[in-house]
């Protein structure tokens, strides 16, 4: 009976020693320096998330083009209804329609001038589509570096405590420095990976809209170049 009681006590003691660590505890255990860097990374994550969804919806809206749009434009132009073609472009209000509308305003001038006007308008449209996307690329590179900065700070704090321990190391203080080193590294990598994936996804989406603009512009120019 005594052996059984002793074994039960040991199990109870073992259970009491076991400790779980939540995400909040992990962040707060990193000390002031760790919490400041984690807070900065959290702000970067919010900025990256906002830019991603704002641009995603904008690009998705820009890619919407009526399947019959170019056929209507060609019909209006062929019949000399330039005003009707311009009105149709205004109603569509998309990057493609704005490019075609710019070309329609140049009808009557040499084809090279029309092409130049469309290309210049296309550059402005692409610039609008890529608005703030470069910030995602910056965050994807800066976030891991900020995390590594926290790693360096944490290691410096740990080494400082070891150097000034006088032969008796305070494990609690040493652990705080190591927490700072590890949590900021993980946080920086997570934010960097999310921003990197978001950036590349937006680039692919933007390229599809650019291709759409180029295809419709060529179709319009080919129609103008057809013999009457």
TrEMBL record:
Family classification: Belongs to the exbB/tolQ family.
Keywords, ordered alphabetically: Cell membrane, Membrane, Protein transport, Transmembrane, Transmembrane helix, Transport
Annotated organism of origin: Oceanihabitans sediminis
Chief location of this protein within or outside the cell: membrane
The keyword Ribosomal protein is annotated on this UniProt entry: no
Gene Ontology CC entries for this record: plasma membrane
Membrane topology type: Multi-pass membrane protein
Residue ranges of every copy of the MotA/TolQ/ExbB proton channel domain listed in the record: 92-214
InterPro entries for the chain: ExbB/TolQ_transport, MotA_ExbB_proton_chnl
Protein name stated in the entry: MotA/TolQ/ExbB proton channel family protein
Entry's transmembrane regions: 33-53, 133-157, 177-199
Compartments where found: Cell membrane; Membrane
């Amino acid at each position: 009976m005594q052996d059984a009681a002793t074994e039960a006590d040991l199990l109870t003691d073992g259970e009491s020693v076991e400790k779980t660590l939540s995400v909040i505890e992990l962040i707060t255990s990193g000390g002031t320096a760790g919490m400041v860097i984690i807070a900065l990374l959290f702000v970067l994550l919010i900025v990256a998330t906002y830019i991603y969804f704002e641009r995603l919806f904008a690009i998705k809206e820009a890619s919407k083009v009526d399947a019959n749009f170019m056929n209507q434009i060609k019909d209006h132009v062929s019949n000399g209804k330039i005003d009707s073609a311009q009105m149709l472009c205004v109603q569509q209000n998309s990057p493609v329609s704005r490019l075609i509308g710019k070309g329609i305003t140049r009808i009557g001038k040499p084809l090279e001038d029309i092409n130049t006007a469309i290309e210049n308008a296309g550059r402005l449209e692409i610039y609008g589509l890529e608005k703030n996307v470069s910030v995602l690329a910056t965050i994807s590179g800066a976030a891991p570096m900020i995390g590594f900065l926290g790693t360096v700070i944490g290691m410096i704090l740990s080494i400082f405590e070891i150097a000034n321990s006088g032969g008796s190391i305070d494990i609690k203080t040493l652990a705080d420095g190591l927490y700072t080193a590890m949590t900021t590294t993980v946080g920086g990598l997570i934010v960097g990976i999310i921003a990197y994936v978001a950036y590349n996804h937006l680039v692919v989406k933007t390229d599809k809209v650019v291709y759409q603009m180029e295809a419709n512009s060529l179709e319009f120019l080919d129609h103008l170049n057809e013999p009457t």
